[in-house]
Amino acid sequence: MPDPLRFLLAALLLAFAAPAAMARSAPAPATGMVSAADSRAAAAGTEMLRAGGSATDAALATMFALTVVEPQSSGIGGGGFLVHGTANGQVAVFDGRETAPAAATPDWWLVNGQPMPFGEAHPGGKSVGVPGAVALAAAAHRRFGRLPWARLFAPAIRLAQAGFRVTPRLYRALDTSRETGALSPAARRLFYTAAGEPVAVGTRVRNPALAAFFTRLARQGPAAFYTGPNRAALVAAVAQAPHNPAPLTAADVTGYAAIAREPVCGTYRQWRLCGMGPPSSGATTVFAVLKQLERFDLTALGPNSPTAWHLIAESMRLAYADRDRYLGDPAFVTVPVQGLTDPAYLAARSALIDPGKTISLVTAGIPPGAQTLSRAAAPTAEEHGTSHFVAVDRRGEVVSYTNTIEGAFGSGLMVNGYYLNNELTDFDFVPERQGRPAANAVAGGKRPRSSMAPTLVYGADGALRLAVGAAGGSTIPAQVAKAIIGVLDWHLSAQAAIALPVLFAPGDTLYVERGSALEPMIPALQALGHAAVQPRVMPLKANAVERIAGQLAGAADPRSEGVALVP
Prior knowledge:
Elements (H helix, E strand, L loop, with lengths): L2 H22 L3 E2 L3 E4 L2 H12 L4 H15 L9 E7 L5 E6 L13 E2 L2 E2 L2 H4 L11 H12 L9 H9 L1 E2 L2 H9 L1 H4 L3 H7 L12 E2 L2 H13 L2 H4 L1 H12 L10 H5 L4 E3 L2 E5 L2 E5 L6 H10 L6 H4 L4 H21 L10 H4 L2 H8 L34 E8 L5 E9 L7 E2 L2 E2 L12 E2 L2 E2 L17 E4 L5 E8 L4 H13 L5 H6 L3 E2 L4 E5 L8 H6 L4 E5 L4 E8 L2 E6 L6 E3 L2
Parallel strand pairs: 21-22
Antiparallel strand pairs: 1-24, 2-12, 2-25, 3-4, 3-13, 4-9, 5-6, 7-8, 10-11, 11-18, 12-13, 14-15, 16-17, 18-19, 19-23, 20-21, 23-24
């Protein structure tokens, strides 16, 4: 298809998709709402809200249901970050990021001194980290849950037992990611025909192994995941993988713990933002992009201005340079979070931004508290295995939660009906540069750096304004920052802000969403000095809930199958 026709088709699809998503997310009384990437998972969350459950209960039920209906992106075989806010703005965060086996060393991804190609690295056992999703769920439920633990599994068990229909998005993933989707015999039996083709759209898939395991997990609690038969099956799947077997041990699995961390909070104009700190780069990167733009009148420029997008790109280049240099697991490296979010430091970084031209060479800054660390090589393949969801309950509590198994179908290994992650490919493949260690080098027990950015935004009155997050690998901070600018600076609804095109500038090349309104701006961006501007199809998928005048309005990315539902 010629490019002009392809762009026209993409524009028409967005035009028809966005109104449908907006209709599903019309403002509703503040009795609760769930926004997720799949309607069946969102319905699992609203079921908890109708039963009197908390936002945490709803978010966890959504995650368990996503394990069933969105196996390519999320589930209990991976991990994630959960940000919880109370009605009066108290924020707590939980780290359920996966950990490397104790046997992992900095040369984990080196073969004969050279980094393993990503396509070789991600399938099989070597990429699997100890899953943290269940431990995170247990920790969050103990603190903020209202319903019994077992109740949270009921929708997921029903979906796995009775079956669920294959959607177009799942079919595309099964078709384009056969190497991982069909790696395990159990997965091939579930999702592929005898001829090796993905089952057709609309096919009802039943997953009795997952239903049985969820039933055991509901009855026995989180120990059923980290001990006993599931632990043995997990260790065996990794150690005996048909590709890249790895030395994961029972002690690695049993020793996993979710961590309640301190949120990273700061102010942007009159709003207060809170998110997830290290090992996530989400909060520091999103905050840096925004804070460095604070001195510019983005409202006056508006979303149709090439200058506005140029400013966003320049701020992003600066923020991502710091992200790549300093972010890692705080148990292994000193991450200068306070320095990276220090208003004076970010004002100095902002001073490098010129509305009329680009910064010729962007390098990491030296924030207060910084150590000398290298900017090392990381895999460049895009991630398609993450899901974000938001839940708000009638008491005003809110959860912004990003869950992931990393690539489409993760490592491709399946245990008890769920896929295991390939999160260890989020470590830098080269452990040092010019004799300096990388902040995100592999180490035993270490959590890889993440881009996930579940975020809460509060108004000057202390009330929730927006809960937002995204999927899409390293584009996540770009998506979240853009959505926040859309709501706060351009006065768009959360739905319209999420539907805005995405500009991604992690370095000297500026990527714009192919077929979007940004593509015609390429000549203007080049005139401002962006020599390398490329249209690109990116894995974009965001979800949000906003509060406007006491009412809730949900938002789901029109590029996805997401919805926002009320109880």
